[in-house]
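Changelog excerpt: complex records now keep ligands as SMILES alongside chain sequences, and the structure block spans every component. Example after the change:
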Amino acid sequence: SKKLRIAVLAGDGIGKEVMPEGIRVLEAAAKRFDLPLEMQHFDWAHCDYFAAHGQMMPDDWKAQLQGFDAILFGAVGWPATVPDHVSLWGSLLKFRREFDQYINLRPVRLFEGVPCPLAGRMPGDIDYYVVRENTEGEYTALGGIMFEGTDREMVLQEAVFTRKGADRLLKFAFDLAQSRSKKHVTLATKSNGIAISMPWWDKCAEAMAKNYPDVVLDKQHIDILTARFVLQPGRFDVVAATNLFGDILSDLGPATTGTIGLAPSANLNPERNFPSLFEPVHGSAPDIYGQNIANPIAMIWSVALMLDFLGNGQGAWRSAHDAIVDAISQTILSGPRTPDLGGQAKTPDVGKAIAQVL
Amino acid sequence: SKKLRIAVLAGDGIGKEVMPEGIRVLEAAAKRFDLPLEMQHFDWAHCDYFAAHGQMMPDDWKAQLQGFDAILFGAVGWPATVPDHVSLWGSLLKFRREFDQYINLRPVRLFEGVPCPLAGRMPGDIDYYVVRENTEGEYTALGGIMFEGTDREMVLQEAVFTRKGADRLLKFAFDLAQSRSKKHVTLATKSNGIAISMPWWDKCAEAMAKNYPDVVLDKQHIDILTARFVLQPGRFDVVAATNLFGDILSDLGPATTGTIGLAPSANLNPERNFPSLFEPVHGSAPDIYGQNIANPIAMIWSVALMLDFLGNGQGAWRSAHDAIVDAISQTILSGPRTPDLGGQAKTPDVGKAIAQVL
Ligand SMILES: CC(C)[C@H](C(=O)O)[C@@H](O)C(=O)O
Ligand SMILES: CC(C)[C@H](C(=O)O)[C@@H](O)C(=O)O
């Protein structure tokens, strides 16, 4: 059968450390489950490339990547040399937007064996998805600075939402909730303060909920929602959120499960008109780069999400996904563990252990 | 000496339950420390008033309140009858903006005797301030809906920042940090994603930091910042934030200290051109209203912040502040405690106990 093609971009910082472990596990899974895959590495979309070329990617980046079935991505950002908004808008945020990866799916789960920062929580108590809108909303470069350098200096920053964007995000969230046992969607809102866009989001969600009589919709303001991620995590199932709110919740959620070093994400174009992108939630982490102590599990779990997506959640691909997640669970329990989980292991130790279990 | 005048507005829901306890403690403190105070109650800025008058407040609300030295506020919002953005923009958000209460100061502290939802944290481990910009930013009714009801429906939502607004917020935050032992300011940013306003905030903060060589500035993206409120709360001292980010952080922070039922806030016009406003961070909480189980401590602590502000942090006023906070600490430790703290006490039990200690 035709091979599925995966573009590999490691990026900056610990992206370069965790990617080899992702690939190690990917290769082990492909071998065991006989998955027809091929990989191609690209040496751009990182800040060294920017230093040499004055831009993050070659002009024809889109043509180069367009034919791939998926993109496996490490992390981008090296603020000491390139401001974050330049490096991110020049790479990751371009992929998300130009490849219309409008769903950013981020599972949050407490694993057995991870010391939970929330007192008294057990595996099973924290198990939900953040479904984040990934192409519009608060992330824009629209607006500007006026009267710069004077007493009247002011800044306008625009957020842009479309009905199409809200509806397809909400549909995905409600479909996901319907497939789960709790059948519960939380909408992250702030309609009491942000007076145009957020009341509109509330209405979009209420309208969508009408199509899902068996799913409960619960609208919560983002402030109290973050409080409840800490105080009542068991109340969540599927959390639908705008780009910004989803960004916040998908760092906070994983933090409550012990470390953001576990959290994977899938940037999906569900229609498969463009390649989807899989990456850890953590960034390039300049503060720990170079020591090889980054936890590769977020990267490896992202590989599992990729395989599941490539195989439409079926057959050998689904089995490969499940086997990787099982191997992750086992390794978290038995060790080796990186320092964020209280261990002393190096990045490759963990990757090798997981590949071994596979 | 001339009496200082306090306007009292209880608002909706549990605002009506906690306010009497705030007043009980205020009266006890005034008596013990001989504070020249007088109170006046206003029966508007609540949703019943809206039901009767079609607006939250009388037309001359500003004239009625203008001469007061402070406003003691409960909570507003009763979404079953009035949408939140209508009730809030018709009351609290008007006060903040029209009385130019540009600082929203919110202490976050773990008290002895409160079961901490973060595993293994002790009093002293969590002790910081959120300094929130309170008059501009993401909270606007600017923008609109276009192509409504069609395939092209879209929404623009504007955020507006001024240099004056950013600078006075940052100055307050740096001054506060300078007066504390850690001398550390964290700026909540999102300059990697929100491409106009947030890089501009970064620059404003860097410029302000130059005036405070003894204070460290640490810029953190809001996503990882929320994660660190859970994972590394000890790293924070003074957190400076825009209106929205400050709103989020000042619910999340208190949640990590056990309950948002403790968190007070001071909406300050430091120049005293207008009355400042003191209120609990929690809202009207329709879900628990009517049972008299709301924790009045956030309200009572807000009273303490008010006295400190009224007395410029000096003399009998400062002593009254300190005595109230001590009485709160003692009562948390000895009980009675409301259900959010694991107890069975009613709202007035806690208020009476604190007044008693005073
Ligand atoms: C009620 C709401 C408008 C308000 C805010 O968002 O400012 C509240 O959450 C707060 O933090 O004071
Ligand atoms: C790096 C940054 C632009 C990005 C985002 O904000 O989307 C990251 O935080 C994420 O969550 O994927």
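The radius of gyration of chain B is 20 Å. Chain B has two domains: 1-102+263-358, 127-256.
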